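Why do we bother with a discrete structure alphabet at all? Because it lets us treat a fold like text: something you can write down, compare, and reason about line by line. To make this less abstract, here is a complete entry for O-fucosyltransferase family protein. Read it the way you would read a sentence in a foreign language you are learning: slowly, and without expecting to understand everything at once.
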Amino acid sequence: MLTFTTLFQNSPSCPETTSSSSLFLASFLAAAASSGSVQDELITLSTGAMVPLPAHGVVGNFSEEEKEFWKQPDNQGYMPCLDFSLKYRKASAKISKEKRKFLVVVASGGLNQQRNQIVDAVVIARVLEAALVVPVLQVNHIWGDDSEFSDIFDVEHFKKTLKADVRVVASLPSTHFVSKQTINSELPFHVSPLWLRAKFLKQLNQESLLILKGLDSKLSKNLPPDLQKLKCKVAFHALRFATPIRELGYQIARRIWIEGPYVAIHLRLEKDVWIRTGCLTGLGRQYDSIISRERESHPEYLTGKLNMTHAQRRLAGICPLNASEMARFLKGLGAPSSARIYVAGGEPFGGTQAMQPLQKEFPNLVTKHTLARNGELTPYMEKSSTLGAIDYIVSLNSNVFINSYGGNMGRALEGHRAYVGHRKYIKPNKRMLLPYFEDSSVGEKEFKRIMKKLHIKSQGQPEPRTNKIDRDVIAYPVPECMCKQ
């Protein structure tokens, strides 16, 4: 909220915004404050969340089809409401002051994979009633990023926001260092609070130290309501990016936002994605041969069923949409050719050639590199997590977000955009739409009708987590973390 206020001081006039944005911001403060029991926490919650710039209105020189594309979904009155139970708050008095038992967690993977593990680490510390040492980020060998927690996230804000839930300390006390310590890395999937207590509580009470590694997606998605709220509190309030990253991300976002509404697309066209998915790049035999050779030399990288052909993988929805497919998908949804398109993600395999089909249909194509000025990104060129954080911020601020592949960033933004007012979020239904890409008998008008029909129910409107089992509350914060005011 502080960032929001700062950005709008002395800002030039902008296109008319929807009234729901102002209503949401006012309600957001009240709803966030309801989760605090002391003044310090109330202040932290009400100023700590990353709130996007207001969505632009759809008035002005737009056709009816374009207005429909930019129109935000009905949030049905849902607002954040982290109302922890009396039992939870009573237990907090003891847990938040724990000074004997400590949990150390090693988080691996890319930025959003690490964020997921950090969220789970806080929940596990709460379940085991242990103090949490600021998580250790394992060096990312794929991207060569050796960033520490404090390089990416605001440590003091993290500690203050969670001080009523768990005690967070910067480092392990010297009294707990031992010459040899067991690192637990063999966790099964879908572990429950009961399993965690049965497995680790005795060890933790005896040794006063527990080190966990390999948490990725291991914690159950179906937790008690208070723990679901805690996950939202960590993801949407406590895990705020470090000030330099946050300020730069909002500066870059504002440069495109000030021009009017824009679409953010997370295109996963990096080399490692093509290797892992077993898909064809769409760039021709030369590029596909390079991917095939690397895949054959590292068969362990391939995900999914090994006996599927390239075509079967594509039609099963395993492959990301390439630039040509994304261009047709956008046109099918009614996006105007003048639309500003922000492309999030790493360097695409094939460079500018890979992006040409999208650039041809939508000339106003930008990235963080084209929007940055005067070497702003230079200090972070070898820091993939920081570059990913900037993409996250710019994507959060977009009017429309489209995720071409899935993955951790897509799920994180799905939940974050829901939490801040259900901003438009479109998930391509690849299994259903790809056959129409292949059918040359389908005319452009009919193709548009089909695309809109296929995606009318997946545009960011409230979708309860309870509709399907094993959904993550971070991606679907209704109903545990949001309620109707």
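What the structure line is telling us, in plain words: Confidence is low (pLDDT under 50) at residues 1-23, 25-46. Residues 8 and 344 are 25 Å apart (CA to CA).
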